[in-house]
Amino acid sequence: MKASSGRRHIGKGEYLFREGEPAEQLYYVADGKIRVGKVTPDGRELTFRLCGPGDFIGEVMPYCSPCLYTVEAKATEDTKVAVIAKEALEEALYLNSDLAVAYMRWMGVLHQRTQSKFRDLILHGKKGALYSTLIRMSNSYGIRREDGSVLLDIELTNQELANYCGMAREVANRMLAALKKEKKIGMENGKIVLLDMPYLRNEIHCENCPADICNIE
Known about the structure:
Elements: E1 7-10, E2 15-17, E3 25-31, E4 34-39, E5 45-51, E6 56-57, E7 72-75, E8 79-85, H1 86-95, H2 97-141, E9 142-144, E10 150-152, H3 158-165, H4 169-181, E11 185-188, E12 191-194, H5 197-203
Antiparallel strand pairs: 1-8, 2-7, 3-6, 3-8, 4-5, 4-7, 9-10, 10-12, 11-12
Keywords: Activator, DNA-binding, Transcription, Transcription regulation
Pfam family, one: HTH_Crp_2
GO cellular component, one term: cytosol
């Protein structure tokens, strides 16, 4: 990365940045995983994205006054990132029109992802939050099988899943138990198997957004 101004190593459980800190750098994940989210006033964790190798992280607004991060970024495993200073990013965008277009496209995709998540939550409440999260995870980690089922190839606790949905773990547990009872989902070696994808999509009137928008990364 030509605009990179250095690299950082973040150990598991450490923060890349915290909410309220100046957003003066863009980060490129070279190795590892970073959870992007925030903590509500009542102490609940909300997870917005799980970023891995090849992903960019940051809320840098080029050519604007510095803003503050509205989210936090925490390493879920040992992680290495390339650091791109705001000034270096602005210079690179100014000199490279193709890069400027790609950056605007990336920002637009992030905006569309956020809009779709809020749409599901507002229109369908907790059901929309859970079902849409499962659908997004199928696009990010799903292994599709001949029988139509989809294995979510990611180890995920019910608490972590609840964090993605913005709900209490007890609520997520009840909803997952109901889906299991109705044979809409199953479990295999501690991983979720989506047995009836059409049901999940129909329940939230899924608009079949492109996979680059409808995912969890």
